[in-house]
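ok trying this again, last paste got cut off
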Amino acid sequence: MILTPGNYGETFLKEQKGISLETAVKCSNFLAESMRIAADEGFTRGLFAGHAGKLIKAAGGVENTHSKYGDRRMEILWDCTKECLASEEMGTEEVEELRKKILSSNTTEEALSFWRKEKSGGRRELS
């Protein structure tokens, strides 16, 4: 089962993966309901492709991802970041600076810009 909430996911699926919406489902802002229906139909695995803002809301358990139903993107992203930091060697001041940057970001893209991919080993590193 392939789900996408909208245009970003649809474009990504078409251009990057060669998948058309003929083989995927556009679920709009109703990810949780769509996943429940898919499970009721017997699907046990799936792919969710969409804008980073929608993905982070889904990661935080937000059932309706429309902006008028609350926006906890930065808080959810910070919670996910903290989990990753458990294995990193960052000082308390660095962690606090990163927390402030993420929580004060206006967009998911801005918040994610504080993450960069290290060239060697492909591991995620915070900047």
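PB: full thing came through this time. The chain has six helices and five strands.
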